[in-house]
Design a protein that fits this description.
Blueprint lengths: L1 E2 L7 H16 L8 E5 L4 H12 L3 E8 L6 H14 L3 E6 L9 H19 L4 E3 L4 H13 L4 H4 L5 E4 L2 E4 L7 H10 L4 E2 L10 H13 L5 H29 E4 L2 E4 L8 H15 L8 H12 L4 E3 L2 E6 L2 E6 L8 E2 L8 E3 L9 E4 L1 H6 L11 H4 L3 E5 L2 E4 L12 E3 L4 H4 L6
Helix pairs in contact: 1-7, 2-7, 5-8, 5-9, 9-10
């Protein structure tokens, strides 16, 4: 049910708006020229975000994601739409229809929300999308991950800027408490909705939120936890910068095959681990990296000069170096030409009229390519190369020099992300 607020003075609103403007500027967003998308669910935090944007005179458009998980969700989206229109903002309701009822509903909803917002932002030419996460969200996430034994990255505060499917997302309110943002709503004479799921003890986050007042009695307040997470974010960013430097000195990439120079073994163990994780997630993109124990076991094998496979990646010692490439047996099935194969490759060059599909090179394609040994690559590294087929004839693959087809394949993510990992989720 909507909460009926009390009107108040505007001093807190002005101060919060000024702080928000400073955070947006710090994140590289120009509030005078750029257009900001606002993700507004109808809760107190996101409604405050919308009123702060109005107070700052931002060029903005509002979106509400209706997950269709509660009967009142459509009504709440309409409430946001009316409030947005009163402020002069355009509004869109984005409906999620993709859940089949299986798995972790909150995780599925979060992923869907990001996908929908990214598509929406691009369709409206928005420069960024602002999310209303607060210091309370940071504190709750810290405790939940602490209970799982997370390391530096897991305990670090969520990044204040990240990219997802071509859209830039900003979190300009990580400094703010929920109480402050509800005060902003009250001072603006606004209303908001309290989601009933915020009281459902079956969710870890709700149990943590209810435990925070007891921790505060020990001096471990939500703000203290958020500050610690912020310090760990700085440490995590520093480690990522060091990993960037290591990658630039010891990694080379060609057609999706990565060569690691032997010098990477002399780096600090934590940097070796981070580099290995980065290589794996680049070769076989996934929502989460391999578990720590599996990553440590793979790193130990590589230190001993042994081949290993992990998370769809094949690591192979070769002529004093280590090659990393897609594991052939984990490659995606053939797909129609001009569509994405194996989640990363697209054919963008000229094709014959008879060309039908893109598929792994495999043993059949390698048998048709008499000159592959001249490249100096091991056979295993070539089996997972993308290739274009016309019937049973392989007609193009990136490393095929006699057809000059290296330019005909486009890979995403590109190699640049191996050397800089600053815009991760």
């Amino acid at each position: 049910m909507p909460v009926a607020p009390d009107a108040g003075q505007t001093g807190g609103l002005a101060l919060a708006a000024a702080r928000s403007a400073g955070q947006l500027a710090k994140l590289g967003f120009d509030i005078t020229t750029q257009k900001l998308g606002l993700a507004v669910s109808g809760g107190g935090d996101s409604m405050a975000l919308m009123y702060l944007a109005h107070h700052l005179g931002l060029k903005a458009r509002v979106a509400t994601v209706d997950h269709r998980l509660r009967p009142a969700s459509a009504q709440e989206a309409q409430m946001v739409a009316r409030a947005a229109q009163e402020l002069g903002f355009g509004h869109d309701t984005l409906v999620w229809q993709g859940w089949d009822g299986r798995g972790n509903v909150q995780d599925h909803a979060r992923r869907a929300r990001r996908d929908l917002l990214a598509t929406w932002a691009q369709s409206h030419g928005l420069d960024a999308v602002a999310l209303a996460h607060t210091s309370g969200d940071v504190a709750e996430g810290f405790i939940m991950r602490l209970a799982r034994g997370a390391g530096v990255d897991g305990l670090a505060a969520m990044p204040d800027r990240f990219a997802h499917k071509g859209a830039v997302f900003l979190r300009p309110l990580l400094w703010a408490s929920r109480d402050l943002l509800r005060e902003v709503c009250r001072q603006h004479g606004a209303q908001w909705v309290d989601d009933p799921s915020n009281e459902a003890l079956k969710f870890d986050r709700v149990r943590v939120r209810k435990a925070l007042p007891e921790l505060a009695k020990l001096g471990i307040s939500a703000q203290v936890l958020a500050d610690v997470a912020s310090h760990l974010r700085a440490a995590s960013d520093a480690l990522e910068a060091a990993t960037d430097d290591l990658a630039r000195t010891c990694l080379q990439e060609r057609s999706g095959i990565i060569t690691l120079a032997p010098t990477w073994h002399s780096a600090a163990p934590e940097l070796q681990r981070r580099l290995l994780q980065r290589v794996i997630l680049w070769i076989a993109p996934a929502d989460y990296p391999p578990r720590g124990a599996a990553l440590a076991a793979a790193l130990q094998r590589l230190t001993q000069g042994l081949p290993t496979q992990l998370a769809g990646c094949h690591f192979l010692p070769h002529r004093g170096q280590t090659l990393a490439f897609r594991e052939a047996r984990r490659c995606g099935a053939p797909v129609a030409l001009r569509t994405t194969w194996d989640g990363v490759w697209r054919f963008v060059g000229q094709a014959t009229d008879k060309a039908q599909k893109i598929a792994p090179l495999g043993t059949e394609g390698l048998a048709q390519w008499q000159g592959w040994r001249a490249l100096g690559w091991p056979r295993a590294a070539l089996l997972s190369q993308p290739s274009v087929w016309a019937g049973g004839q392989m007609v193009a693959t990136p490393l095929l020099p006699d057809l000059d087809q290296a330019h005909a394949f486009l890979r995403s993510p590109a190699a640049d992300s191996l050397y800089s990992n600053r815009l991760s989720h």
